[in-house]
Amino acid sequence: MLLEDLGLDQFYKEKLSLSKILEINEKTINDEPPKRKSDVPWYFLNKLMMAKATAITVDSDDWFASSNEDDSLNPLDLITALFLCSDGFVHQELALKMSMCQFSVPLLLPNCDTQQCTLMLWAMRDIVKKYRPSNLAESKGFIEDRIVLSELPMISFVRLGECSLSKSEILNKLLSNSQQYHDTFVHRDMECGDIQRRISNGLTEMTWYLPCGNKNMDIFSEPVAIANLRGDVASFETQFSFLCQTSAAVFVFIDQLDSECELLMNKNHKAQIFLVGNQQSKNFRVDSVEKLVTSLALTENNIITKNKLINEATFVKKLKKMISDVVKNPQMKMSVDQMADVAHKLGIIVDEDSSECQDGKMKADKITAEIKDIMKYKEDQLPLQDKIWKELTCLEKEEFRLRKVGSENIENYKCKLQIERKELRKKQNDSALSKAMTCFISAISSPHRERCYFLKWMRMNLDNLSRTELSGLRELYKEKCRDSENKQKIKKIDQQLSSSSLGVEHFFREMGQIYEASLYLPETDPSRQQLQHLPKLCAQLLLDGFPLELVDGDASNIPLRWVSDVLAQLNDLVSPKNKILVITVLGVQSTGKSTLLNTMFGVQFAVSSGRCTRGAFMLLIKVNEDFKKVLNCDFMMIIDTEGLKSPELAQLDNSHEHDNELATLVVGLSDITIINIAMENSTEMKDILQIVVHAFLRMKEVGKKPQCQFVHQNVSDVSAHEKNLRDRKLLLEQLNEMTQAAAKMEKKEKNKSFTDVMEYNPDTGNCYIPGLWNGNPPMAPVNAGYSEAVFELKKNIIQQLGKYESTSNNILEFTEWITSLWNAVKHENFIFSFRNSLVADAYMRLCTEYNQWEWEFKKEMYKWVTTAETRISSFGTFTATSEISDMNEFIIVLKSEATTELTKWETKILENLKKYFEQPEGHVYLVEGYREDFSNSIKSLRRQTERSVLNQITTTADIKEGLKELDKIRATDTEKIEKAVCDLIDECHKKKANMTDQELDESFDKMWTETLRTLSFSEQQSSNIFTSVSHQLRSNLSHKGSRACDLLSNKNLKDCGLEPFTYKPKGRNDTIKDQGKGAWCWTDHVKARQEIADSIISACNDCISDQIKRKNNYHDTYIQEILHIVGEKLNKADVDIDIEFEVPLKQHICGFAARKFQKIHEEFIQKNDPYKSLQKHKERFCTDFKHEFQERDQCLKKAEEFTNQILKPAVENFIYRSLGLDIVDEIKTKEEFSTRMSFQYSILLDLISKSDFESFKSYIRSYEDYVNWWISERIRESFSSQSTICELEDKHLKFCMGHIDTAFKKATAEKSDSLKTFVVKICTKLGDKLVISQDALDAFMVLNNADQEQFAHWLKECVQEMTEALREKFKNTQFETKLPQLHIKPENELFNRVIGCGKRCPFCKVPCDAGGENHTQHFASMHRPEGLGWAMWDESQKLTTDICSSLVMSDEYFHCRATKGEWHPYKEYREIYPDWNIPPDVSHQASNYWKYVMATFNEEFAEAYDAEPADIPDAWKRITKEQAEESLKKSFNIK
Question: Comparing C-alpha atoms, which of 613, 612, 830, 801 is closest to residue 707?
């Protein structure tokens, strides 16, 4: 019934587990008293798990007491209920925490169903106590032991019948010293202690009094166990018999003696009996007591009574004296472990008797029984983790740092290291699986509960074995550390500590090494297959709440593959509920970090004094379903780390580097880092802060934003927060100082203060925690203030995590962070070595989004410009829709509209960027550092587009204005011709004779000649384009100084551009070679500059060709655009550009361009000559004259003419203006065009699939040309099927037909007085979308007297026919023929989309992959051997195999123009090329793609470069095509 009231009945059979208790839920941070009775157990558990010494007494009136007696609850009933309803592991945790709080723990637990009771041996098994008996007081030694194994005298207290004295209260006073009273036992005078017990009668509790070695403070000078039986002993004979057989003495509290006295006369009882009575009780009879004393043959010393003359203090003092006498000379000492035999004889159940517990014990004992000498045992049974693993660690770091490469070729050296690594792994594989590991693996493969018991037994057994030796060493270590003179001794003790330490983690460490070594065996090898289940076993253990070693503190390394595979299995076990948040603690050695975490989360990190945490351990806590929404995660990962050492100690074992690595790793993994500091030691604090600040700075630079909480322990004053205002200020000053120091080291000097690195508020970011113990251990309970402060810290942390803006990682993402952070810390330069696929993913997504926004912007502006050009073309004629009559005014309006449109789109994209970074998902915070780059790229895009748009408007308007006079002349001349034709018709009609066609032709020719003679045709003067271009070139170079002017004057522009451009250096500087390592050279600058020149000339030629195809008149903006292209490309060039190179190049391009532009100018003048224009229409005038004379119906003919001469060209023009955008839209949906990196990946994959040397050579030597060609090929492939392009054309054709139809209907609806007005109305309606040819329209209007209705009828028919004819034409026209006619060239748009900034790696010439054009940092996903870029050894002329991503972490040197010929270390390359980031390869497979290419085509490259073939490392020759493709995927982060 009580269990039901407490809501525990469901756990009576299916026991409550530790993981359920430790779950993070709403109650975790809620300190409010329970509202219902069923909340009481959870409230109590939460308090107890946080070791609150007030767990039983605080707020007891709220939750134990009740106005209704039936609802009230005795605390002992609650404790009994919880023990009855929980499993063995919860029992241990409850007993441990109760013991820490100095509460008594259950020794014999009654069963509420039966009369049986259980000996709680297992529950107490984990309690370890440390004390100093009197014989060790002098030597300051101490005893540390598992309390159940300690043979101590036990003094038991029982009650016979009713008793007026409170036995438990007297015991509390007995165990408390005069300064401090503590309620170890619940008693009747406590709140709710007097409530009737419902299930706890028969409960026997136990506690211990342990001396501290100070005779002034110790109550008993020797350790003693105290047992207390609840209820009348007469009802619990079994328990009484047990106590009498296990105790040194039993104190029986009596008031009234009846027949129960026989109980005391049992001959089997070994304990001394002491009677305790109260003479003040009315039931107390002296004669009965005397009679009993005689029966039991007791002496006066065995009796103590309280009377009026003895107050309570004196009574307790006498009692203490009696117990002291027993303790000094006990008749019996017995450990709790030994009590199990007595229990078995009496039929008492022992909790350790369960089969799972016994099987676990048996398996653990089998392993640990073999251990005699820990150091020797580790060598024999755990051989893989010591010497070989440490050698592997050194090897791994050397692979990343290349400190010992000497003069050896780097790639050969790296291959040699790889071989060494394989050899070491082979050594590990050659070691047979030891007996201990065979047993261990077999045991953890057992069913769940048995496995848990086994591991607990293992941990306890190993602790027992190493405690004696280690605890002494640990004390000695602490002592020597205080005296910094003993450095060598400290180092020796530290090594001894490491060697003598043996815990379960060493077995798991060995397991990890066995597993990692097995991965070097063939996949089919049985040995490897037998071990494949190990990661899953460990994943299950993590899920069960066991800590897993993340960093091996002894070897300072992470077994990355092992940890990754365990976490991958964990992910499989919990998916899709796999989101985690990470909390880590960092701080100085021995400052209670593990205790803090254990108190905060109830977890079990090793804290015994014999062993300190080494490395880092991670532990998983489940988040309750209801609370997941608050934290946005499924689990909380807690990471405990070893203490950071002060510099003096760090120097001894070179662990300073290890501390930095560890701090960087755990800070990087954390969402919140707790930093444990001690303000009292300012120097030590400063050193630790330097390590921590360094870690935070590194995280900021790589995109991670962990939060931090400083914890100050052992601060006892209640006003600490205010008093420490000065300390907080000092701390902030120290943090700022450390930030500046760290920033200088990491070359990130822009970080001036700690708040630049992370958000930190000195008032809320500090937590003050008092000391752990309230008094002197071992008898001191946990300080209530400690628990309260830790609770507040926990609450604050969970609330902070709830507000955390960053996306929580899933388990696989967490694994990726471990790998990338650990790989980066192995390098000397962490920030520039850091590579992470999550960052790459986030960056890729941002680039994809940005590219989409950029294209939308460009597309809309293209459409806007097309419309604007159409409006300009229509301006000033009778088709104009504008009210403005002046072209200049109209252009001002258009430019204003353009600015508004540009601003609208710029704002929209900037807003998109802002929203993108506000989204909670997608790890956007990782790419926060790139936000400014993309923002700048948006602004730059706007500027570029604005320049282009305004140029196009100006050009179109100027060309239109230039034709204005010609249009007037043409209109006047046409009018005169029309009048002459009309006069001729009248004249012919007057003759009233039928004239043949020949006669009519002759009359027309005669009239035509005479009329043309009367017209005055002034010949159109062509301009000298060379003069205009020369002026623009001078203007462009005007700011370049007098040397540029001199060079320009030396050569006439007309003499430039006639021959192919050849760069000829002036002077010897240009032949200086860039050298690296003093032994090999780059292609000289002459070749490099020639290549740049060829590339620029090619781009300018494309631009000139586009202008020629448009058949417009020349405009200055054309040459301005070309000079802009040259300027842009010269700025992006990777070689030094001087005026001697720039001027001749620009002269060459301008000379060539001027020649072409002169030609198009003259062709334009010829085309628009009024005389030629009239002659062009002579045939049509003649036909119209004959039709008019013969009075034939012109409607059909005129409808056909209008359709074919005016509408059809306008529709075709519209379609070809629109089609380019559609093609780009279609192509950009393909994955390879989504981002620059996707494009690079696709083009490289295509290259390797073709495996054609010429393609590789073309890609490397003429990158932009190859990219252009490749894009064109992709476009052709995509539109090889005519149906695709026809669909797009048909879409635009339908749009035009719909537009024409609407215009036709509107013009018909508006009554027109003539056909001319009707046609003008149609053209006016079409003028905003279609460009109507003014010339063709003027010709159409001549002699047009067709009937309007008939014309309208035939026009409809003709438009239908035109639609079908155009469809047929499009269908039968090849795609290649259509491409040159497109107004927007898709290949150019796509090229600009994927080519990026155009910068190349200064060493290997690989193109930059960064997104957006205005980025501040260039990077490439994959670098290549420099021999592929024409680099060769000076002496041998052999191509070099060095790769810059290896060189940057070596001690090699280079020199070049940028270094002014001085040798410069590769490691410091950023001093010369600050805008390039060349991270070292994350693995040896990273550059496999290019290694494969070079190894495959070594001979061909050598021949092409006129060099000797490279000495290819053997490892490169073994790389397969599949491995090369895999490395390509990995480098570009393709899933």
Answer: 801
